[in-house]
Amino acid sequence: MHEVTHAAPMEIDRIAPTRRPAGRPAGCHRWSNLLFVHWRLPPAELEPLLPARLSVDTFDGDAWVGFVAFHMSGVRPWWFPAVPGISVFHETNLRTYVHLDGRDPGVWFFSLDASSSLAVKVARRRWRLPYYRSSMLLERSNSQVRYESHRLWPGQPGFRSEAIAEIGEPIGTGDPTQTPGKAVPGTLEHFLAERYILYAQSNDGTLHRGHVHHSPYPLREAKLLHFEETLRQAASIPGTDEPAHVLFSDGVSVDIFGLRPAN
Asked: Is the whole model's pTM more than 0.90, yes or no?
């Protein structure tokens, strides 16, 4: 059972991105059975892997790399209903946390693996994100969840991940000062999970920013029973250390807002 950790740098506004953007969303998703696995490492080891305009966002002076595996359903544009067989697939992403000139804290993706060929093609073309087609598995039984991913294309095949986790109680259970399951601003859990801005870079070097909106994640403690991955190796991220932090969420419904140039 991990302790909720306090000490996020508060000079960056981390509440504004959680508010719903103006305008109509481009699409809707449902994210469920999310496993968050994180490593900590020196910021200098990630800086060469980021676009020049982005800076590493840190907690307690450290950078954090996240592995997030989950199920997606109801994936559709706002004007069209979900389609069986197309709107449902699994995803695993490898990411870190960044900010733009001390504002707009968000996510930079090193890779995103999905079990849908169509989703991969659309996301690579329209969202400028490094998606890969993978064969994937996600199984949940009572308090245990299992994930597997084996990359197929594009690029070198074979990069993989396997995880089995035991799902625990909502974070903050038993703490009278905390709402069970809800991450408190200023804690590591809020820093890692409550991210609503994503960054992507087009082939010409233009940096773009997207936004998602959802209710706060209902977060649970989790314990890894088995974990292997080569996704960090594929992304040239150093380190062979054990994960430093693990969380689970049953899921949220999400509105997706389109990309626009990052000003």
From this structure: yes
